[in-house]
Structure formats: C-alpha cells, structure tokens
Specification:
Layout (H helix, E strand, L loop, with lengths): L13 H6 L10 E8 L5 E3 L7 E4 H13 L4 E6 L17 H12 L4 E6 L12 E3 L2 E3 L1 H17 L3 E4 L6 H11 L8 E6 L6 H7 L19 H12 L4 E5 L5 H11 L3 E5 L1 H12 L5 H15 L3 E4 L2 H9 L2 H4 L1
Parallel strand pairs: 1-3, 1-4, 1-12, 4-5, 5-8, 9-10, 10-11, 11-12
Antiparallel strand pairs: 2-3, 6-7
The protein binds ligand PBG.
Length: 329
C-alpha cells in the first residue's frame, strides 16, 4: 500500500529542508571561553583540548579580536593566578589576572561582550570552589568572597558575571554587592544547574583547578537529578539571575528542554571541555567527521532550548556558519 503521507517530499531538496528547518544555529548564539595566564607572549597549547591554549593577556587580546572579527558576540574568561592560597585571594585582587584581562579585552574590542567566570577553584590551594574549614566546603563564608570577586570583575569592566561555584545564595549575595557598588545594570549569568560531572576533566587540566582532596559532590548537582535542577533555577531566578545555565550540555539535553519549558527565561548551556574533547578525539582518529559532529551537537543544544551556547568550538563553528554550510547540507 502506498504511504498516506510522505515526509520525504520535503527532504529531497536542500532548499526545502532549509525552508522547514525548526532550529537555527547562529554565530550570535555563541560564547567563546578562554584561559588567561600571567606573563607575556605565552601560548601553551592544551593537550586534552586540541586547538585551545592558555594565553597571556597580550595573546588573549589577539584571540578576542579574532573572535570579534568572526562575529562572535562575546568571550567568557577564566584566569590562572600566580599563586594559590586557602582563600583564593587573587580571584578578587584588583590587579588579578582576570581583572587585567577584562580591561585589556574591553580596550581592544569595546563593542564585544566580556563575561567572567566567578569562582574560587582556580585560585584556592585546595582547589575547591569555596572556603574550606575542618575538611568541608563552607557555604556562607564563601559568599562574601564570591561577591567581592564579582564586584572586582565589574570594576574592571566586565559586561556580565557568571558565578559557577554552586554555593547556596550566591546569586543573591552577588546581586546585592553589585547593586551596592553601583553596578545595578550588570547582569548575572548563573550556572544554576551545574552537575558534578566527569566531563570537566580537560578543563581542570587547563585551569589547574582539580580539587586536592575529595570531589565537588557536596556542592555540584547529582547527575541523576532533574527536578532538583528546576528548583536550583527557580532559586537563582528569585535571587535575581538574568540568564540561567545548564551545564554540561549534551548529556543534559532533557534538563535544558525542561528548563526552557518550565521557565521560559533566557537560557544558556555550557558545552564543556569533555564534550569538546570527545568530538576532537574521535575526529582525529578518523572515527567521525569532526565538523559535522560539532554542528550537529551545537544544533541539538539549541533544539533542546538553549538560547546561548558556550562552546570551545565557537570559532570553528563561526567559520563554517559564515560559509553557510549548515544550510546546504
Ligand atoms: C569552575 C568551573 C569549571 C568549569 C567551568 N567553571 C570546573 C569545575 O567546576 O570543576 C568547567 C568547564 C568545562 O569543563 O569546560 N568552577
């Protein structure tokens, strides 16, 4: 019997496929994360993140210019300090690495967005995202340090701050501190549903931020939980988050979809270092087509409901999107 309906009619021609495509991936949706270190002329390639590097401020500025030239709307900065201590003091130092980097990038590409990751783990000697007392990560004493960090980033010129520590109440504490310091207009991108994920492995090598004892399960979420993610998002919105985030992205597409459906607020997804590393590694081995896998993954994250996609592939994707290759596939 002949089929009643033939969905293939609209699949035959590329132009038909483009006409009915439900999800778009645009350069405008992408944010490019970068790692900045002290020094000059430094560019240290990252083994587990091929194509990415730790760069000094002078090199960072070139990266930011490059990304801007490709139409990428913004960068997300991560810093590596000269020295670590128990309270992560370079995180909130006026001349800390991120603060220097923000000023330099804003000077070079003032019309682009500079976002900063607000956390202590790269800066603490124990590698945890908060203050440690008696072997455990203490919530409330950490809030003040996070708020100081966020204000110092805003003072340096950051367009948006992104707390990634997962302490309870940090969005509210940061909002209050920003408002008091005169930065009521500076938005907060909250890493709201951030899971205790093995997919951060390559990042922790890059940022030298692995915990020196234990793990992050006392503050980051259990990968088995989705309802709890909705609760975390609701709390962050109540505390004043402007954009909420789900992280990682690919293994948590259901969480992204649910967050978009339940809240309908601006939503970001962070396609983390491990997601990048998997596609890069399989591509290098010839086990899959890296470019197509990348575009498929980024499109899937958008399809799930993310407005903003934070990805180490931002430049690679921008190059392909610019050529309009997605549309003709
Ligand atoms: C800092 C932070 C991490 C990532 C972003 N901010 C690491 C962690 O929580 O251990 C991970 C990003 C990535 O894997 O690409 N707290």
């Amino acid at each position: 019997m002949a089929p009643m309906f033939r969905p293939r009619r609209l699949r035959e021609k590329g132009l038909f496929r483009a006409l009915v495509r439900e999800t778009t991936l645009a350069i405008d949706d992408l944010i490019y994360p970068l790692f900045v270190v002290h020094g000059r002329g430094v560019r240290e390639p990252l083994d587990s993140m091929p194509g990415q590097a730790r760069v000094s401020v002078d090199e960072l500025v070139k990266e930011a210019k490059d990304a801007a030239g490709m139409g990428i709307p913004g960068v997300l900065l991560f810093g590596l300090p000269t020295a670590k201590d128990p309270r992560g003091s370079e995180a909130y130092a006026e001349d800390g690495i991120v603060q220097q980097a923000v000023r330099a990038v804003k000077d070079t590409v003032p019309d682009r967005l500079v976002m900063t990751d607000v956390c202590l783990c790269q800066y603490t000697s124990h590698g945890h995202c908060g203050v440690v007392e008696d072997g455990s990560v203490r919530n409330d004493p950490t809030l003040e340090l996070l708020a100081r960090t966020a204000v110092s980033h805003a003072e340096a010129g950051a367009d948006m701050v992104a707390p990634s520590d997962m302490m309870d109440g940090r969005v509210g504490a940061i909002r209050e501190a920003l408002d008091e310091a005169g930065y009521a207009e500076t938005p907060i991108l909250a890493y709201s549903a951030k899971y205790a994920s093995s997919f951060y492995g390559p990042f922790r090598d890059a940022a030298d931020s692995a915990p020196q004892f234990g793990d992050r399960r006392s503050y980051q979420m259990d990968p088995a939980n989705a309802a709890e993610a909705m609760r975390e998002i609701a709390l962050d919105l109540d505390e004043g988050a402007d954009i909420v985030m789900v992280k990682p992205a690919l293994p948590y597409l259901d969480v992204i979809a649910r967050a978009k459906a339940e809240f309908g607020v601006p939503l970001a997804a962070y396609s983390v270092s491990g997601e990048y590393a998997m596609i890069k590694a399989a591509g290098r081995l010839g086990w899959l087509d890296e470019e197509r896998a990348m575009l498929e993954a980024l499109t899937a994250i958008r399809r799930a409901g993310a407005d903003v996609v934070i990805t180490y592939f931002a430049k690679d994707a921008a190059r392909l999107l610019e050529r309009g290759r997605l549309g003709t596939r």
